[in-house]
């Protein structure tokens, strides 16, 4: 039997022999430890040697109610004994039907149709194709382009990457991608000195109007991440931008796609971020927290008007012939239903507001740190912008990898913090306690002190 002190090293050795990990320069693992996790418990991950790590990023923003959540686990076990999967073309099943009904009831009014897919990137692909195909079916085949925001990120498949603007992910594959039109982000961090987030939003809406005036005739949709541009550095904007953008899309006859993959299901303080702007998009993309972080599943919600544009005799050639083998998977749908049941049965959003207030209070002293240019928060998402010089906002050279130092310090102190470049962020599971938030913040502050030394 392998003793615990050796267990992690042995699993890491076996892993690195064959596995190519996502979003990773594998050469880094010559000096960055591979951490084998064998079980989870609430907000904690536990490695093969019994060491515990507080999951400060909800395992890539997916986990809502803790690892190995007993309610979701029990629902999955029951479903596995009943129906694990069935083809979703020509067949259906009760779990998918109920999940679609529940999602329609919870999302903004008018989103009455649900198309299931496998993951967030797949949901974006569906929305992009569906928007283009809608206009084609309506006789507007000249609408072939999309408008995205600077600093946006929507996924890694080619369509999703096409409407993303993070060079780290996009640059290499640019020759393979569609070319979107980019509108300036309403990111409040980019505001002029003394300018309010709402004023930044209004200024950026004016720029969007100019873009639409010149290009609406060739534009299928505008795609945005409501309130928080997550992978772009947790950049945040005022809800007024979404309100104004909905009006512009209506005026210029283009679709609005809301990518709520990361911000949905309570992350920003409301169940969906669009609620804070009182808008309903034409397409809403959901994933990540949809299953509470247990299984891959995504959903694209859209309107009856969009659905009707595809509804015709087969020979009309208007059908949306997009599919995934695991569309509507019963196990994933059952996990999603139990996730929604937890929202229904427990005061999740109220508790989140209390936790978010505590997180804000604990982070507040960092506003005066000489290497912190910005401290921002929307609900259960908070971010700290590290810079080399506070006055000029001069950034650290990327090759210095200051964020990596914070990550490594966190591992040593039993906390999973995985910065985005030099942005240290917090997006913990909703089952985290105030004491655990204290631990995350304390470790982050220590890590920042170490990283900027």
Automatic annotation (TrEMBL):
Any one biological process term the GO annotation gives: biotin biosynthetic process
Enzyme Commission numbers on file: 2.6.1.62
EC supergroup of this enzyme: transferase
Modified residues (N6-(pyridoxal phosphate)lysine): 288
Binding positions for substrate per the UniProt entry: 60, 153, 288, 323, 418
Pfam families, sorted: Aminotran_3 (PF00202)
Function as written in the Swiss-Prot or TrEMBL entry: Catalyzes the transfer of the alpha-amino group from S-adenosyl-L-methionine (SAM) to 7-keto-8-aminopelargonic acid (KAPA) to form 7,8-diaminopelargonic acid (DAPA). It is the only aminotransferase known to utilize SAM as an amino donor.
Known partners and oligomeric status: Homodimer.
Protein name from the UniProt record: Adenosylmethionine-8-amino-7-oxononanoate aminotransferase
Gene that this sequence comes from: bioA
